[in-house]
Amino acid sequence: MSAEFAAVARLDDLLGDPWRAENVYGFAAGAARDARGDFPHAFAARLDSVDFPLAYLPPSLGGTLRGLDETLLLVRVAARRDAALMPATLLSCSAVLTVLAAGSDEQAKTVADWVQEGRTIAFALSEEQAGSDVLAGEAKLDPTGDGYRLWGRKWLVGRGATADAVVVVARTAERGPAAFTAVLLGPRELAHRVRRQPAQTVTGMRGIDFADLVFEGTPVPRAAVIGAVGGGLAGAMRAQQVVRLLSTGACLATADTALRTALRFTRDRRVGGVRVADTGYGSRELAVAAAELFAADLLSLTAARYVHLSPATFGLCSSVVKRVATRLTSSSITRSRTLLGARAVLAHGPGAVVDKARRDNEIVETIDTSPFGVLRAIAVQLPGYAPSLPVDPGTVQTSAAPVDVASLFAFGEQLPDLDPAALDLSARPKDLVLLGFVEQAEGAARQVAAGGDERGAELVRELRAALADTFATAAEAQRDRARGLGASAELLDLAERCCLLYAGAAAVLAWRAYPDRGLYGEEPGGSGWLTAVLAVLLALADGRDPRQAAPELPPAVRALTRLDAAGLLFTALPVQLSDGRPESEEGDATS
Questions:
Q1: CA quadruple 398, 401, 402, 406: dihedral positive or negative?
Q2: What are the start-end ranges of the E strands in 47-146?
Q3: Strand 210-221 and strand 194-196: pairing?
Q4: Of 538, 537, 541, 382, which Cα lies nearest the Cα of 471?
Q5: Which residues of 407-486 form beta strands (DSSP E)?
Q6: What is the pLDDT of residues 314-347, one digit of tens each?
Q7: Which of 80, 137, 151, 178 has a C-alpha 20 to 30 A away from that of 66?
Q8: What span, in angstroms and rounded, lies between the C-alpha atoms of 154 and 480?
Q9: Is-contact 265 477, C-beta < 8 A?
């Protein structure tokens, strides 16, 4: 498995041991840049030299994309050192993918050439007064004899103060989703009647300019229109399905850094002669944090293959992975920070590294789609799954043909080309993970039990019942106007619950896909990590403290320790890292 991702290990080796204070690509350097608010120029240039910014661009356009699963891992090994590397090097993906989803071949070649030349293409959709309601946008394109004039203000545009080009979505009609058009403005257009506002100070990813763009009758040629007039939101929303997935790379990277820092710290520090990692509190917090990270990791890897294999059914998964990754990694980082004790408040050492990881992680939650927007997109789809997952498992109606989910979990195997234009915006109950899980749940439970893990088998069955209940309740709420999305928050709560259960379904299917090879360093057929993950996810879905699942948690911290001891990324795949020991703690085993 590791051979398929050798490029990921090579990149990490190229960047050197991140624990070394003198390494400009390491943790200390990232924390220092963050404190100064500096853009990571040298780091970005190093990644440019090995074509890192081309990792999402198809080879037909000069890119290096082999599969988004590999791209996600490349992002993780770079961004774990400094998550600001994502907007510094990959920010153009929103704009480029919008063009690939809706634009012409000529426009696709233009943006690809710009990216290869090292230019940055910003993406301008949000407006301050509109919030998460993109249909409330007021920036407009007025037709003229030879094109359009663009008026209005776009808010918090990433790299807005420094971008070389920009894709803008603006209004061309009065109402509805078809009232918006996307246009591609190059250096020539940006030089006329465009005001770039000063970059605003943000809490995370400091050094990256988030600035407003003000258009004051900017001339826009007809050739700048991406796709059809009125198709701007459709193209942008297709692109955002991929962007939401890629953004999880920053979530996973920051959680890896925080948890690895906490793990090493708690293994080196003793309280009353006992290592903090071995105390009841320390081991439990590490285990929950590990289970949360593992759940987000597996779902992200699955989604990265899903978008290639079945783009027409990817819509639900796209929203779920964004919500799961941001929520679970945020919780994992919070637990990691708590384990540092008083050092968590220091602006140097492990406290600075974890604090930066926390703030960078929080930025991702609202980039590309807000939490409310994500949950709303999920909520409207839930009722359609009720017939597929009846509450009574004895009445399961499987699909006419077996759901092909095995390819979703064949991590490392070749994928078809990514086709953003094939992404579907309709809410159709065809999600492969959910339908695959309902077909395989009982078989998986029996397989887990056959390995001697009766509790794990019980949790698989509980997961299936919880999913069925969630969809049935959503269907009832949809029929009752007083409980619907517009009248109460119930469907949003059900969407949140669905996200956690969906992650559990992906974990079960991933475990079943590797009967002869354990994941997270476990022996073949071992289900300890799976039991820990399901126990935590089901507790969260039910509104319970996951620490109450203490009996199921130890395998997660053992898996975490194995991965770190072997110098591996905290992922299901054996990705080798260049990490040594933190300089300040080598040989230090006392408090």
A1: negative
A2: 121-124, 140-144
A3: antiparallel
A4: 382
A5: none
A6: 999 999 999 999 999 999 999 999 999 999 999 9
A7: 80
A8: 38
A9: no
